[in-house]
């Protein structure tokens, strides 16, 4: 499915009272999720344990 078709399908599945801002936010979220999944498929992710270690450093 092409990008245009995916976007149309996504919009059609959203509630009727959705705003343009909501649509833009949903597109942004989905784009970032897709990019993240692609990076994981390419082996560019970090393990769960490494993520927890990094988070603990940021919280301190």
Write the layout of secondary structure elements.
Layout lengths: L2 H11 L6 H22 L6 H12 L1
| Overall morphology | elongated
Query: Into how many domains do the coordinates divide?
Result: 1
What is the SS-derived class? mainly alpha
User: Could you tell me the strand content as a percent range?
Assistant: under 5%
- Radius of gyration, CA atoms, in whole angstroms: 16 Å
Q: What summary fits the major beta sheet?
A: none
Tally of contiguous helical segments: 3
Which runs of at least 5 residues are low in confidence (pLDDT < 50)?
Answer: none
CA distance, first residue to last residue:
44 Å
Average pLDDT: 94
Along the chain, the helix and strand elements come as: HHH
Secondary structure tally: strands? 0
In percent, how helical is the residue content?
over 70%
């Amino acid at each position: 499915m092409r990008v245009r078709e995916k976007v149309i399908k996504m919009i059609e599945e959203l509630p009727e009272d959705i705003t343009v801002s909501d649509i833009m936010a949903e597109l942004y979220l989905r784009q970032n999720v897709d990019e993240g999944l692609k990076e994981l498929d390419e082996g560019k992710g970090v393990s769960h344990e490494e993520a927890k270690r990094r988070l603990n450093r940021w919280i301190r």
